[in-house]
């Protein structure tokens, strides 16, 4: 059976399965991996273990190496560069009067590419903006449009429950949430009460939906109509009268 490790690149992102490449890892170790975005620094959350081949859907990428002190130092230095790129990009967006909102900037570990995440109501022609950014930072620029739920996941915040957002703590993937689920739980259909900070229906509505749908079945409860209850009442009265007559005899 192939050996695998689980690696998380971002605090709020999902984890990925890689081949340890013959290296023994412990939980919490920092590693350098190749992703679809380029070289990135990740953290081991699942140490070396064997996996069933049938559970692996595609060929495993190998871990490039265990992170060195230089890699970790580079990652820290990138934060300042990302902040600089964020401010510069916001300035250019305003100067060019573009209808878009910049959310976050990420640089790859080898500084070969910068990814600018943004939201917009529609399609945006950002070709001139990309030229501004490429001229300033001398690397490959990628503009990635995201939705409002991904924005909340990246930015973070507190929900109406007072706790940190589910999507920034433990929720790795987004799942569809419908108004029907809110109705199943007898929630007040007030947008301010059932919407998250992203403006969409709260993800936590999904968590308890199955309990409401199958609660009666699991408890093996029986429901009676008013007519049935009246029949039971009449039958009970008849039985009581019969018992009373038997006692008198």
Quick overview:
Residues 61-146 form the PSP1 C-terminal domain. This protein is of the alpha+beta class and 249 residues long. It has 7 helices and 8 strands, in the order E-E-E-E-E-H-E-E-H-E-H-H-H-H-H.
Structure, explained:
The protein is α+β, with helices and mostly antiparallel strands and 249 residues long. It folds into three domains: 3-67, no CATH class; 74-146, GMP Synthetase, Chain A, domain 3, CATH 3.30.300; 156-244, no CATH class. Helices cover 36% and strands 20% of the residues. The protein has seven helices and eight strands; from the N terminus they run E-E-E-E-E-H-E-E-H-E-H-H-H-H-H. It has helices at residues 69-95, 127-137, 148-155, 179-184, 191-194, 209-219, 226-248; strands at 3-8, 15-18, 30-35, 38-50, 65-66, 101-107, 113-119, 140-145. It has a five-stranded antiparallel beta sheet with strand order 2-1-4-3-5. A hairpin with a 5-residue loop joins strand 6 and strand 7. Helix 1 (69-95) packs across helix 2 (127-137). The longest helix has 27 residues, at 69-95. It is elongated.
Write the layout of secondary structure elements.
Layout: E1 3-8, E2 15-18, E3 30-35, E4 38-50, E5 65-66, H1 69-95, E6 101-107, E7 113-119, H2 127-137, E8 140-145, H3 148-155, H4 179-184, H5 191-194, H6 209-219, H7 226-248
Parallel strand pairs: 7-8
Antiparallel strand pairs: 1-2, 1-4, 3-4, 3-5, 6-7
Helix pairs in contact: 1-2
Taking pLDDT < 50 over at least 5 consecutive residues as the criterion, the unreliable ranges are none
**Class derived from helix and strand content:** alpha+beta
Main β-sheet: number of strands, strand sense, barrel status? 5 strands, antiparallel
Note the run of SSEs as H and E: EEEEEHEEHEHHHHH
Give the tally of structural domains.
Answer: 3
Mean pLDDT, all residues: 87
The number of distinct helices, counting runs of at least 4 residues, comes to 7
- The number of E-state strands comes to 8
Give the distance, in angstroms, between the N- and C-terminal Cα atoms.
Answer: 82 Å
**Major sheet: arrangement of strands:** 2-1-4-3-5
Proportion of residues in helical segments: 25-40%
How much strand content do the residues show?
A: 15-25%
Compute the gyration radius: what is it?
29 Å
Pfam families: PSP1
InterPro entries: PSP1-like, PSP1_C
Protein name: PSP1 C-terminal domain-containing protein
